[in-house]
Design brief:
Distance between the termini: 28 Å
Radius of gyration: 16 Å
Shape: globular
Number of helices: 5
Structural class: alpha/beta
Number of strands: 9
Order of helices and strands: EEEHEHEEEHEHEH
Strand order of the largest sheet: 3-1-2-4-5-6-7-8-9
């Protein structure tokens, strides 16, 4: 339980969330339980990909990176049973810890202090039936919910979820993000403006800088 399969680890700029633009150390774990049609990390789907690394060595790497912010991502990080233990070790080392999760698995497994970034899967992802809405009862003001939009149908679905689960009462960190190449930036911006949608629009900063490739 003190080992995880790691696809890659690197230091870059945080490309998404309210932390976008900050220097961040990334630990990408192997394995995912979903298959979104727009996935840009297919290379991390296989739970046997990458290499096995111990929690102590991952924590030492994160500390030695000299970066105070670390994100555990995937794949789906909660697909790895030892991910909560890794997060606890990173927190104990004095690091600020983000976890980006697809929202289909219990976030309550993560230790207190982790800032959780949940996807709400929308219809055009092909995975909307996998949203674990009970997670929304666990949200704190430090947590974030991301809506990755491929179409107007997706956007309207997201608005309904926000209203049904009263998400603004739980966190003001609600993020609207266009699927790369599917929705024009100005189109999504207009939907957000015209609907007075709660939250904010975001673009994938890392893709704008480096393009659609891994390790950045």
């Amino acid at each position: 339980m003190n080992e995880l399969r790691v696809v890659e680890k690197f230091v870059s700029l945080q490309g998404e969330s309210t932390h976008a633009g900050r220097v961040c150390a990334f630990i990408r774990l192997a394995g995912c339980n979903l298959r979104c049609v727009y996935c840009d990390t297919m290379y991390a789907h296989d739970g046997s990909s990458g290499s096995a690394e111990k929690i102590d060595s991952l924590t030492s790497w994160a500390v030695s990176s000299g970066v105070g912010l670390v994100e555990v991502t995937g794949g789906e990080p909660l697909f790895s049973p030892a991910a909560p233990m890794l997060c606890a070790a990173l927190l104990a080392a004095g690091l600020e810890v983000l976890v980006e999760t697809n929202g289909s698995l219990q976030i309550s497994a993560l230790p207190h202090g982790v800032k959780r970034i949940l996807d709400c899967k929308l219809p055009d992802s092909g995975m909307a039936g996998h949203n674990l809405y009970a997670n929304y009862d666990e949200l704190t003001p430090d947590d974030e919910v991301k809506f990755v939009v491929s179409s107007r149908r997706d956007f309207d679905f997201g608005l309904e979820v926000i209203k049904k689960y009263d998400l603004p009462a739980k966190t003001d960190k609600l993020l609207w993000s266009p699927v790369w190449g599917k929705v024009a930036f100005d189109e999504l911006a207009r939907w957000v403006i015209d609907s007075r949608a709660p939250g904010r629009m975001q673009l994938q900063l890392h893709k704008l800088i480096w393009g659609n490739r891994p390790g950045v």
